[in-house]
Specification:
single chain, about 45% helix, alpha/beta, transferase, Nucleotidyltransferase, domain 5, 3 domains, EC 3.1.26.4, endonuclease, RNaseH_sf, exonuclease, 6-stranded mixed β-sheet, 5-stranded mixed β-sheet, 15 helices
């Protein structure tokens, strides 16, 4: 009799698109298997699909598979939508390569597909989520190792390079009767070259201080504080697209925050950095569980706000907070930080409300996040439940769509409010002050020495003479 195998599959993405990972937790009748992987530039849906594909491929073809996924995109896609996609020859289907691969992998197998609520404390789903994040962490570590090896290789190559002007690559020195011994010259130039490399390293380190905030790469304060590092080296003012989930609507009536998620953007580019925290509100979540899907049982072992306040405050402070209906989120954050003994977050951060922006841009229309997703044709994500990090990712797409577009060159054709918006956009452009690097006295002396050596060797003035 064929064995029955249970699989829990999940995907994770830090920025969408961005660094991602997939994981599959496989339970057979006699043992457990944990497989995972990741990609440096992918999407959440692609990682969800990859987790399902790799999980199924791992299992024997004659086994009955019971698969649990917290992605309705995967579950409904493989059980319902795929039949229509095939009839249309996959026209207008997102991720057709993975859907075709999943379909082919499932052929001839007995599979039962099930949906499970994510981040609700179910052991199998939580393990798959941990594996997906482990896959992303492993991919990030590999990227860093490759970058380090490439940098070391580049440095070694630079050290081995000789000065082509003094090395005479075309053999002209062979025609000269009084050939000069170049070994001393090359030795001098080698030491000067190394000094120049050291100077470049120092100045690069100085330039890196232009970043306004040093974003922490990880947190050891509490295992439930997840801070991902930047995957892009950027400079400029930080913007944090933020969302919270709470036990209710009224911060004055003892409702509390249960989840905070924020992703970082600099110069309209997502950096890959984010923060995500679940918080024990020390009170029942009540009917709000129907909105965010976070249960009392799941929050039982999570930290209280006072435990995570310092790390969260340090990550957020100084940035421009972008939120949909920002008054709601800021009221709760100000209340929580005040309880923990910190100043109000609104005192150390600028705040931009995308709901107010949308109402001004689309008066008289629906301006909920879902409505804006449809209006700006943002790729759909599974929002059966509202998660803080998921909503922050969606809001980043909406914000970029609302604030993007081409500015008209015919200012007279714009309305008065549109002209004001265009003027404000120009005035708010970041001003980057580039560092001016001057040579040191030692470098000037070495330059003069090099010029003299060149002129003595070739009997003509050097191009680099002052």
């Amino acid at each position: 009799m064929a064995q029955t195998i249970t699989l829990y599959v999940d995907g994770a993405c830090r920025g969408n698109p961005g660094l991602g990972g997939w994981g599959a937790y496989i339970i057979t009748e006699s043992e457990e298997h944990k497989i995972f992987g990741g990609e440096p530039d992918t999407t959440n849906n692609r990682m969800e699909l990859t987790a399902a594909i790799e999980g199924v491929k791992f299992c024997p073809t004659d086994a009955k598979l019971i698969i649990w996924t917290d992605s309705n995109y995967v579950k409904q896609g493989i059980t319902e939508w795929i039949h229509g996609w095939k009839k249309k020859n996959w026209k207008d289907v997102k991720n057709p390569d993975l859907w075709k691969l999943l379909d082919a992998t499932c052929q001839g197998r007995e599979i039962e597909w099930n949906w499970i609520k994510g981040h609700a404390g179910h052991a199998g789903n939580e393990m798959a989520d941990q594996l997906a994040n482990l896959g992303a962490d492993q991919t990030l570590a590999s990227m860093k190792n490759l970058a380090l090896k490439a940098e070391e290789s580049s440095n070694d190559k630079k050290k081995d390079e000789k000065d082509w002007l003094l090395d005479d690559p075309f053999g002209f020195d062979l025609m000269e009767s009084n050939e000069q011994d170049e070994s001393e010259v090359l030795d001098g130039m080698e030491s000067a070259h190394i000094e120049n490399e050291n100077f470049s390293t120092e100045t690069n380190n100085q330039a890196s201080t232009l970043a306004p905030v040093a974003v922490p790469e990880s947190s050891t304060t509490h295992p439930h504080i997840v801070i991902t590092p930047r995957t892009k080296q950027v400079y400029g003012p930080r913007q944090l697209i933020l969302d919270t989930e709470t036990t209710g609507f009224y911060f004055q009536d003892s409702d509390r925050i249960v989840e905070v998620g924020a992703i970082e953007m600099v110069n309209r580019k997502l950096t890959g950095s984010s923060i995500h925290i679940y918080i024990n509100p020390q009170k029942p979540v009540g009917d709000s569980e129907n909105i965010h899907g976070i249960s009392d049982a799941f929050l039982k072992d999570k930290p209280v706000y006072a435990e995570i306040a310092e790390v969260l405050f340090e990550y957020l402070k100084g940035a421009e907070i972008i939120a949909h209906n920002a008054t709601f989120d800021m009221n709760f954050l100000n209340m929580e930080f005040k309880r923990a003994g910190f100043s109000r977050l609104s005192e150390v951060c600028e705040v931009t409300d995308t709901l107010a922006m949308a109402k001004n841009k689309h008066p008289g229309q629906k301006n909920s996040l879902d409505a804006l997703v449809r209006r700006y044709e943002i790729p759909q994500r599974d929002r059966t439940f509202h998660g803080a990090l998921l909503d922050a990712e969606i809001l980043s797409d909406v914000y970029l769509a609302m604030t993007g577009g081409q500015v008209s060159f015919d200012m007279d054709s714009l309305s008065e409010s549109e002209q004001r918006d265009a003027q404000n956009a120009r005035e708010n452009l970041p001003i980057l002050k580039l560092p001016v690097i001057y040579p040191s006295e030692q470098e000037l002396e070495e330059h003069e020495m090099w010029v003299k050596q060149f002129e003595e060797k070739h009997g003509t003035a050097c191009l680099f003479t002052k």
